[in-house]
Amino acid sequence: MTKRSTWSIPYLVFMIIFVVLPLVLIVLYAFQDGNGHFTFSNVTRFFTDSDSLSTFALSLEVAIENTLICILLGYPAAWILANRKFNRSAVTVTLFIMPMWINALMRTLATAELFNMLGFTLGKGTLLFGMVYDYIPFMIYPIYNILMKMDNSYMEAAEDLGATPWKVFWKVTVPLSMPGVMSGVLMVFMPTVSTFAISEFLTNNKIKLFGTIIQENINSSMWNYGAALAFIMLIIIGVSSLFGGERESSAEGGLI
Known about the structure:
Layout: H1 9-30, H2 41-48, H3 50-82, H4 90-97, H5 104-118, H6 124-149, H7 152-160, H8 165-176, H9 178-194, H10 197-203, H11 210-219, H12 223-253
Helix pairs in contact: 1-12, 2-12, 3-6, 3-9, 5-10, 6-9, 6-10, 7-8, 9-12, 11-12
């Protein structure tokens, strides 16, 4: 017990049971048929199934729209919170982050009930509203952290060289804050593609996203195809994370 590495054993056991083992099971089921024989048919079926492809395309469309809306609304909010010219406080920052303290399912159910009370027809508009409401804190927080840690001497140097406030914002602030924007994009885009509860409750299951068809296959005991779809989603998430990590590294390297 005197070694520091000993204290990491509980975390290692936790990761093996709840992270590594489920991922291994997904891969095993994805490349097996109902009789346990190795096959690629589950993965290739996705590329020939028009319903799965159309659902995936719709999921990408909704994810892109949700991410763009979160950037347009979240960046100004993060900039205002981080700007010393405004009378910001810890309470104001907490109000923006507070929705994250409430269970996402409870927020979604409350949003759906609000639309029902107001008589709105549930559809893509209500879906995007719910998506933005649930995920915008994940866009605000990383951008806010980057802006708070930003060295103000860059902006002051630009002002001393005659740059207008608008040019300072676009030429200095925005490029320096891109690592936070990229983190926010990853934290909003990928969960939007894979979610299913929000689309079910806010559209009465009229709009199905990629996570919905995974859930439906698992609930219908079609474990192998459901695992293959989950495996494809994991590949997309992994590639997106690597791409986002490279973009953040290059952005940070450009500041040195």
